[in-house]
Amino acid sequence: MRRFGRNVILTAAVAMSLAGCATAQDAPPAPPSPFDAVDPFIGTAGKGHTFPGAVAPFGMVQLSPDTDHKLLREGYDWASGYRYDDPTIMGFSHTHFSGTGHSDLGDLLLAPISGEIRWDAGAADQPGSGYRSRYNKASEVAEPGYYAVSLTDSGVRAELTAGTRIGLHRYSFPRNAPARILLDFRPSIYDYPGKVQWSRIRVHPDGTITGFRETRGWAPGRQFYFAMRFSKPVVGYQLRDREENVPYRGFRQPGRAMDDRAQVEGRQLEAAFDFGQIAGPLLVQVAISSVDEAGAIRNLESEGGSFDFDGVRASTRASWEQALGAVEIEAEPEMRTSLYTALYHALIAPSVHGDVDGRWRGPDNAVHDADFTVHSTFSLWDTFRAEHPLLTLVQPDSRNADMINSLIAAQQVSPYGILPVWSFAGQETWTMIGYHAVPVIADAYLKGVQGIDGQAALNAMLASATYRPYGGLGDYMDLGYVPIDREPEAASKTVEYAYDDWTIARMAERLGRTDVQQQFDRRAGFWKNTFDGETGFVRARLADGSYRTPFDPTAINYGSDYTEGNAWQYSWFVPQDMAALVTAMGGDQATVAKLDAMFDYDNSGLDYSHAEDIAGLIGQYIHGNEPSHHSAYAYVFAGAPWRTQARLKQIMDSQYHSRPDGLAGNDDVGQTSAWLMFTAMGFYPVTPGSGQYVIGRPFTDRTTLNLPNGKRFVISTEGLSDGNPYVQSVTLNGQPLTRTWIGHAEIQAGGELHFVMGAEPNLIWGTTAPERPYAMSAYGQ
Where do the Glycosyl hydrolase family domain residues begin and end (predicted)? Predict the structure, then answer.
């Protein structure tokens, strides 16, 4: 259990007893279990955008407190609905993104009320002006699958837990006070007038409440359905359409069913349920669905039929203990907390999307059936880099295959016939660039994840890579680059398409499609068409072939030459051929100098306040956003792995902490956390699809991967300390390892990777060209 910043208070008698039992020979106390090491409050302040509420691993329901719902133009810092320092809680809603730079969701807000019903949230600085309540910060508890808080204005103790498709509330009301629940179906995170297109709340004769809402938000036309039941009988209720402002009042007479005619439809709906004075807590079960109300009822009955709050909490705890137990970490306490919390954040999404009966709503807004568990919430521009590669190490094939098959199934029913770009609840948002479902599929398939149809996967990849209307792809295919006078962010799109194309070539090679392999190996080299040898930067070109001027490598503007970055970050994005990039930069020494210039850049006079995602700056390295995430490892490709080791320590020391503002930028559905996990272990997947991890340096004394195949892979460290930041030597299964990479197959085979650390850099280890990681030009492609 985590209560951030809490003090453990012992009575004097207990403390004296413990002191009397202690001896010099006593072993140090065991560190917290992986479950107890997690602190869900990390990332809830600053720019992390995480939420502290209850969620099961990859759960459809994310039941969490909402401290505010801001208008779209004001709400960036409330992307998860929660800010650690906010003084009030509006209520508890059932859907949230973890760490995104954009948001939506916040569906089905419930607020427990012990007095007069107030139909609006009111102002945070005006207590009593609405249904929101102040809360006791010291009473806040968060652990995987559980959240609790004491609401001071209402006097209610609120507890939340969640299963895969359900959320369960437990509210303890003040004695002799009425117990009431307000359901506000109007707001959502990143709210704005007119977002709700239509909605319905229906009261069934057996007391079940169901409803529907369609919103036109980040994902247009998203449909949300719910089913809700109470553990106590309702003695009265009101349904309101706030646009019409005419309430429907109902009640239940003893021994009789609820009024079966009770429902309300409109765009601004609310409901209030009165239970009178009750003995014991009130439990509320909620299940959700994107299919229909009947699906939500079936989801509810699949997990929550008995109102067993403690049973659901225990079951979800067991799921988290199993998931977190995939990694055993021995490290300093703060690092260990940060790492287990990072692993926890990496296991929240992609989230289950399909109903318990296999039905799911696709990007065509139609309902389909699947014989696997459909997932959604794919932030692919972020997560192809490290999040999905991490899942191939810590999750079983069945989960990874479900995710890959979900991407393929979405492509097969897409109105455009292409793979998801950034999707949630099965709907496409068209956010970010590239077709990065492609490397996610390729990386999993090439690593041998079972249960994926390779031909269907390749067909889906080709459909995305040849859809000419998408993001300048037609010009890219014809000209070899995306021209900036026809398509914004053209420099970024060119280099990202080229990498995605390389992964298609590797899939085609594995499947024996030589024609496709040759075509996409050629396209993988298109990054060269946007690299300006004179300046040493990736730059945007016009359709006539000239580079766009004027050129400022530090400029960051939305819709300009680059996507959420500038030339300093994007000039390193050639993960498929870093050796060729080093050559284009002028060789090893010139590349190292260029990397140092990026990290050491003096940002005085630069103002990036207009760019929301630019956080965690170290010079022109921007750890708070993904284009920089592999850049510290680029030194390895230039024969200077000790420079990578020094930069990784600089990043770790400045960008991660075990406190609410402990993430420098958006966690982006686990990507920033996955970077931390890999880097702490001592290696990173610079080029997903290559089957290699580039060795950096470890930050733990010992990490053990309990692999899905039943084997164990140990990363051990000798001499680790702040004063010993450099790798002196590496062995794999007792044999010297002089190369600067390790293969996925070597990890899957089990064994031990051992590091010896020291105070001074080893200027010889891993420096020669044969010892460097994969590059397509080095393999004759």
Answer: 296-758
Which residue type does 583 have?
Answer: T
* pLDDT value of position 76: 80
Coil, strand or helix at 593: helix
- Burial (CB count within 10 angstroms: exposed 0-12, middle 13-18, buried 19+), residue 709: exposed
Query: What's the pLDDT score for residue 77?
Result: 84
Low-confidence stretches of the chain (pLDDT beneath 50): 1-24, 251-257, 781
Type of residue found at 489: E
List the alpha helices (DSSP H) in 271-308.
Answer: 293-303
Going along the chain from its start, the domains and CATH numbers come out as 34-320 (2.70.98.10), 342-350+622-781 (3.30.2080.10)
Spatial separation of the C-alpha atoms in residues 410 and 483, rounded to whole Å: 29
Q: Is 583 left (phi over 0), alpha (psi -120 to 50) or beta?
A: alpha
The H or E element spanning position 156 is: strand 156-162
User: What is the C-alpha to C-alpha distance for residues 745 and 47, in angstroms, rounded to an integer?
Assistant: 36
Question: Which pLDDT does position 557 carry in this prediction?
Answer: 85
Rounded distance, CA 717 to CA 697, Å? 9
The answer to whether 165 and 302 have CB atoms below 8 angstroms apart is yes
- Model confidence pLDDT, tens digit, residues 312-327: 999 999 999 999 999 9
Ramachandran category for residue 179: left, alpha or beta (phi over 0 → left; psi -120 to 50 → alpha):
beta
The secondary structure element, H or E, covering residue 705 is strand 702-706
Please write the tens of the pLDDT for every residue from 680-735.
Answer: 999 999 999 999 999 999 999 999 999 999 999 999 999 999 999 999 999 999 99
What tokens were used for 656?
């991660």
Alpha helices in 414-532 (DSSP H): 437-446, 454-465, 473-479, 490-511, 514-524
Residue 531 to residue 585: CA distance in whole angstroms: 9
